[in-house]
Amino acid sequence: MDKFRLTEQDRATLQYRVTTKLREVILKGEFKVGDRLIQEEWADKLGVSRMPIREALRQLEVEGLVRIEPRRGAIVTPISVEDIEEIYQLRALLEGQAVEKSLPFLEEEEIKELENLYERMIELNGDEKDVEEYMQLNARFHQVLREGCPWRRIHGLIEALWKGIPPYTPSLLSNHLQEAHQEHFIMLEYVKQKKPKELREVMEKHILRTRDNLIQFIDKSGNQS
């Protein structure tokens, strides 16, 4: 039980840590589909009150990792490898197309914002507090890249795909941030050079590389459990 307990330093970012811990436990296969995630039990394991557990479960429900049912509480519904493949393959196709269509319409102000977002991301050193900030910067970087796309429907489809696990993968794949930095740098260079086709290609590779690393994480965790 002590292996799950949070330190005083951890409590500075309590909500993020609790959510991250529960997300990792689910994705590592420590629960079966249909298992209950009991608030009191996990509050005791993590050494916190029920409130951050309750808030974490609400977030995990949005991500599709749990389903909250009346009288039963949080039921584990972990994302499968097949789910990951579907989500990231669709993201690669749609986001690649969106950034290609977007690039001719990006203004200088948006390019400056992309530069600022990239610089802020590479300044982060990869600890847990920084990963939380990185997730926000990364999501905004992707959003700005596709903002100029004139296709209205594609935005809704992409946003629907982002409502699950994608925004939170940096918390699981923090050891792959250098790869992400390199890909973001290349994207930024193609934006400056006004090369929409090349931008689409690197965006597709970026998303599919993340897919492969996430599947590897899930498979490795499952084998170790």
From TrEMBL:
It comes from Halalkalibacter nanhaiisediminis. It comes from the Bacteria. InterPro entries: GntR_C (IPR011711), TF_FadR/GntR_C (IPR008920), Tscrpt_reg_HTH_GntR (IPR000524), WH-like_DNA-bd_sf (IPR036388), WH_DNA-bd_sf (IPR036390). Residues 12-79 form the HTH gntR-type domain. This is DNA-binding GntR family transcriptional regulator. GO terms for molecular function: DNA binding; DNA-binding transcription factor activity. The keyword Protein transport does not apply. The keyword S-adenosyl-L-methionine does not apply. Keywords: DNA-binding, Transcription, Transcription regulation. Transmembrane segments: none annotated.
